[in-house]
Automatic annotation (TrEMBL), chains A, B:
Coiled coil: none annotated. This is CCA-adding enzyme. Catalyzes the addition and repair of the essential 3'-terminal CCA sequence in tRNAs without using a nucleic acid template. Adds these three nucleotides in the order of C, C, and A to the tRNA nucleotide-73, using CTP and ATP as substrates and producing inorganic pyrophosphate. tRNA 3'-terminal CCA addition is required both for tRNA processing and repair. Also involved in tRNA surveillance by mediating tandem CCA addition to generate a CCACCA at the 3' terminus of unstable tRNAs. While stable tRNAs receive only 3'-terminal CCA, unstable tRNAs are marked with CCACCA and rapidly degraded. ATP binds at S55, K58, H143, K163, Y172. GO terms for molecular function: ATP binding; CCA tRNA nucleotidyltransferase activity; magnesium ion binding; tRNA binding. Homodimer. Mg(2+) binds at E67, D69, D120. A single active site specifically recognizes both ATP and CTP and is responsible for their addition. The keyword RNA-binding applies. Residues 309-417 form the CCA-adding enzyme C-terminal domain. Residues 39-138 form the Polymerase nucleotidyl transferase domain. InterPro entries: CAA_C (IPR048833), CCA-adding_arc (IPR008229), CCA_tRNA_nucleotrans_2 (IPR042090), NT_2-5OAS_ClassI-CCAase (IPR006116), NT_sf (IPR043519), NuclTrfase_I-like_C (IPR011068), Polymerase_NTP_transf_dom (IPR002934), tRNA_NucTransf2 (IPR015329). Its EC number is 2.7.7.72.
């Protein structure tokens, strides 16, 4: 038994486990919301049940991360259209005093902030046992039941540790921005392995990405399931629905990061894995000063959005734009170290790629056809005979030539291709392309400065825990 | 029938076909040499036959390229050691007045220059029919017999065209410097196809490198032969010895160049394919001026040799050095466009590589292990956590980091590795590493200047024929 780890986990639990008074506070907020919705039901006369779900209902919520999920459950004869066109607009108007924020997953829902607690109000449709589920959230109630049934007080604390760990290392959340581990996934994994430490040990020593298959209740046929799910990094069968992979959102990166973080935590348990140490502003300044060498290797696309998009939509498009941008750079032989996006999720976003160099040589090597392709090889010679006058020549049985590069600057290249990069909802945004070295003032914004630093450092947050700042 | 080509070939033949008086001149030189060797035989009392072989004996020599091969043939009970230790030193002393140049293939031989004609004097051992051949040159007599028997006056002219074409496009010669087509190989190919034009057509439209198998007399078993010869670019069975591939020396490049040149000649017949136009000095200056942009991308190793080596040995080592040099540059992520060597074959040689850039960024991307390699991945993180402070990070299931490059300059890199590059007989040479831009004065030497220009242009000589200098 690792007593050092025990000590760390005890301290962490003290910080994350809600007290009786925390419970009371959340309960009173829940009651407030349920009352509001009851009044809404009476006023609209829509047939609905109101139900508190999620980690609060399951008893697995974190004191450091209080949140409530309140579900509006419509009878099974309703459909998504009704939610979207009838229920949602009325609900939004009804809750206007709480300044609701519009969210969107499969259909719209609302987020309120009440006394610092995030409250999601989620309309859904009841799914009858055995019938086809209409929206993903309709399973929530089944999930709540399952987790409550399979856990006791001890296991709920273990789940809290798992969630705090995942949050600390930056892999908590199934949303597109993160592509990590959902709360329900961490609950199932902790239940399956019987505790937090055993979960980490499994991740560290047993998990092989692409070969993880977990079916707690043995409700699925592994062969059939693997076929149905394609080849995801990990498969965790939903015990309430064998057709569903609870880990479907988990990206290869986040899974790998979880595995590596588990290995490093087990050999070097530190509270910083759960609570990444915020950088002292002086230290941040110093590191940004060091990182300044790389400012001229960062291509930025600064976006101003005309319309506000739901976060999942926005992040989906930012990530798509990022991947097109990376592709264009690589097709033009820029060496791309890393790309990332930042957004205030309101009106401003930034795409960034770190390159080995933002300026390429004027000339580039063209690999021509093998000489056995007769027509093609003669055309190649004709094409490159005079321009830019070096080559063509033959190596082995293949033709080569030197050609002139159209764009030697990464920034000009990206500017020329903005139309390809900004598609769908991003076409409306205004975009400004530059190198970070031309725009050092953007790091004055605290949030952007922190993101730039973390982008340049490149390390996942769990490595910051091991980083000795004095050494860099 | 392509009359344009006919016209070109007629003009070429007028230039390359020896006249009766050319014949007489060469014959008298042959007699002179044979007489000298007869006297040598009488003086030394070594049992030997003296025989004039090669293209003069076969009637396939070029007026523009007069040369004689005179063989000293020892009876079959002699061995290579005797040639090396007894015959050769005496022969050399005997011919001292002709300033003989020492050459070396399987054993030493001598080259004389008499009235501008190159005369090779080659000791060999008679091979009895059916017995194992002792040295490669022992087959020469059989070759002479075969070619004389299979050709008439017309076919000998066709062979002359084939040789002049191969010489013009720079693929004539089996020596290591060229790795091209020997005279005997071109004789066999012309005999096989019945003429020069038909040979070019076969090369242009039928030959696929690696799949050329020619056995004029049908003396070999193709399956067995292919196994015995490995997988060379082309196989041409020696009609006098089925165990020998006459095309063994032909490199993939020279074969490919022959094929491409044949295609371009057939569609655009020009005398320049046979006689590359020498550049007007003014034009050469102008092109070198244009090429100056690239001088800073050429890494030079200038060598001064202590001892003079036989050309084949020297070129073998220069090419080996070149390939090691290219490897070291590429392992350190320099993009190498092309490498080549020049030598005066006496005391001075130059190795050169053309790079996309001679300076790399200070930082380089390191591809680490996949995270499923547990120990390896933890060691990787420990190694790169602080140095140079960017990374490590994860893409997919693999670790990456940024590291500091030891050498950012191609010249320093090559200097650090000279010990690996200059091996065997080259270790004695003094070496100076520089960029061509630091040493522009070396192009003042006419021969080196011409080589540098041709190195930078990169085009094989047969492409110069198509080049419109006005356009570059």
């Amino acid at each position: 038994m690792n007593t050092e780890a025990q000590e760390v986990e005890k301290k962490v639990l003290e910080k994350i486990k809600p007290s009786r008074s925390d419970e009371e506070t959340l309960k009173s907020i829940a009651n407030l919301v349920v009352n509001e919705l009851d009044k809404f039901k009476q006023q609209t006369r829509i047939d609905m049940k109101i139900s508190v779900e999620g980690s609060f209902a399951k008893g697995t919520w974190l004191k450091t991360d209080p949140e409530l999920d309140v579900f509006i459950i419509l009878p099974s004869n309703y459909d998504k259209e009704f939610i979207k066109n009838e229920l949602y607009p009325k609900l939004r108007a009804w809750l206007n005093d709480y300044s609701p924020i519009e969210q969107y997953s499969e259909h719209p829902y609302l987020t309120l902030q009440i006394h610092g607690v995030k409250v999601d109000i989620v309309p859904s449709i009841e799914s009858l046992p055995g019938a086809k589920i209409i929206t993903a959230v309709d399973r929530t109630h089944l999930h709540t039941e399952y987790v409550k049934r399979k856990t006791d007080e001890r296991l709920r604390d273990e789940i809290r540790l798992a969630k705090a760990f995942a949050r600390g290392i930056g892999v908590y959340g199934a949303e597109i921005k993160i592509k990590g581990f959902s709360g329900y996934l961490l609950e199932l994994l902790t239940i399956y392995y019987g505790g937090f430490r055993r979960l980490l040990e499994a991740a560290a020593y047993e998990w092989v990405p692409g070969k993880i298959y977990i079916d707690i209740e043995g409700v699925s046929d592994p062969l059939q399931a693997k076929q149905a799910f394609g080849n995801p990094p990990m498969i965790v069968i939903d015990p309430t629905d064998p057709r569903r992979n609870v880990a479907a959102a988990v990206s290869m990166e986040k899974l790998s990061e979880f595995i590596m973080a588990a290995r490093l935590y087990l050999s070097n348990p530190k509270e910083e894995f759960f609570f990444p140490k915020p950088l002292h502003p002086v230290e941040k300044r110093r590191l940004l000063g060091l990182a300044e060498t790389f400012f001229e290797n960062v291509v930025l696309v600064e976006l101003r959005h005309k319309a506000r998009l739901p976060p999942d939509t926005l992040w989906g498009e930012l990530q798509r734009a990022l991947s097109i941008m990376k592709n264009i750079l690589e097709k033009n032989e820029f060496e791309v170290y890393r790309c990332d996006a930042w957004s205030d999720e309101k009106e401003q976003s930034i795409l960034a790629c770190l390159l080995s160099t933002p300026i390429k040589t004027k000339y580039r090597l063209i690999k021509g056809p093998p000489i056995k392709e007769r027509e093609h090889s003669i055309r190649f010679i004709e094409k490159y005979l005079h321009s830019p006058f070096l080559g063509p020549w033959i190596v082995g049985d293949r033709l080569y030539a030197i050609s002139v590069r159209k764009e030697v600057l990464a920034t000009s290249l990206i500017e020329d291709h903005l139309g390809e990069i900004l598609v769908s909802d991003l076409t409306d945004s205004t975009a400004k392309v530059s190198l970070l070295s031309w725009r050092p003032e953007i790091i004055e914004d605290e949030e952007i400065g922190e993101w730039i630093l973390s982008f340049l450092l490149g390390k996942p947050k769990w490595l910051w825990a091991l980083l000795d700042y004095q050494k860099v």
